[in-house]
Amino acid sequence: MSIEKTVAKNLLDIKAVSLQPNDPFTWASGIKSPIYCDNRLVLSFPEKRSVVVQGFVELIQKEYSEAEVIVGTATAGIPWGAMVADKMEKPFGYVRSSNKTHGKGNKIEGKIEKGAKVVVVEDLISTGGSVKDVILSLREAGAEVLGVVAIFTYLLPASSELFDSIACSFKTLSNYDVLIDVALENAYIKENDLEKLKAWKKDPKDESWMKK
Hints:
The chain is α/β, with parallel strands linked by helices. It has helices at 3-13, 46-63, 77-88, 129-140, 157-165, 176-185, 194-202; strands at 17-19, 25-26, 32-33, 35-37, 69-73, 92-95, 108-109, 117-125, 144-153, 170-175. It has a single domain, classed as Rossmann fold. Helix content is 38%, strand content 22%. The model has no long low-confidence stretch (mean pLDDT 95).
C-alpha cells in the first residue's frame, strides 16, 4: 500500500480524521465542513507515529535533499519536527506564533544560521495561513526555506494559491482526495456521500454542498 493510502487509513482508523458529510463540523472560522482533522492523536499511537516520521524522512530526502535544519511550527509541528530531526541527525528549531513576551523575546527558537537551508514541518495544511507566517519569519531571519512538509492537506484551492504567492513548495504524506477514496473502500462513508465531499473541497465557503 502506498504511503498516501497507509497514512489516510491510519488517520481514519484512530479517528484522527472524522468524516460527517450529513452532520458537518463548524470550524473556528465559521466554515461548515464535512471533515475534522486532529493529527495530534497520531502521537498517541507508536506504530502509526513511526509511519509518519519515516514518511517525513523519506519525503525530505526525496524532495529537499539539501536540507540542513528541520523547523517545526508551533505547536502542532514541534513534536514531528523534533522526531524527524533526531532520525535525520539534523539541527532542530521551531517558530512561535508570536514573539515571546519575556527573556529575549524570541520568535524563532533554536540555532538557525543565516543562509541555512530549512525544511518546515507542519501537521496539517488547510489554507496555509499559519505556516505562511513561519516561512516569512524564517526568510526575514536569513534562512533559505526549501519547502514545507505536512501529514495531511485538504487540497483547498486557497492553499495552492497562498503557497504560489510566496513562492514556496509544499509536500504532504496524504491528502483529502486519497482519504475519501480510502474511506469509501473501508466503509467509513457511503457512495452517495462522495458528491457532497467533492463539492465542499471546491469552495468551502459555499454551503450549497450540504444540499447535494
